[in-house]
Amino acid sequence: MLDLVAFSKLPVMKTVTCSEMKAIENKAFERGAIAADLMEKVGFKMAQVILKRYPTPKKACAYLGKGNNAGAALVVLR
């Protein structure tokens, strides 16, 4: 079960390049991580950052590609 409360207390990570992110994801998958869990965690953290900056939600529009980041974006929108 995903512990969103514990995850929300993690520090903000540094910005990485696409190739660095792919390497990080591959290491996580090698260690047994599940893509759906990663998308939930990333999407939840992204939503927290957005809500901190824009505390009164209104309308949102997202243009999504077909990669894994699109799944995280759908979590944010949810």
Outline the structure in words.
There is one protein chain. With 78 residues, this protein is mainly α. Helix content is 60%, strand content 0%. The protein has helices at 4-8, 18-30, 35-53, 68-77. The two termini are 19 Å apart.
Short recap of the structure:
The protein has 78 residues and is an all-alpha fold. The chain is 60% helix and 0% strand. Helix 3 packs across helix 4 (68-77).
Order of helices and strands: HHHH
Strand coverage percent:
under 5%
Helix content: 55-70%
Q: Name the average pLDDT.
A: 81
Task: Figure out the total of helices.
Answer: 4
**Secondary-structure content class:** mainly alpha
Separation of the first and last Cα atoms: 19 Å
State Rg: 13 Å
Keywords:
single chain; 78 residues; mainly alpha; 4 helices; globular
Q: How are the SSEs placed, and which strands pair?
A:
Layout: H1 4-8, H2 18-30, H3 35-53, H4 68-77
Helix pairs in contact: 3-4
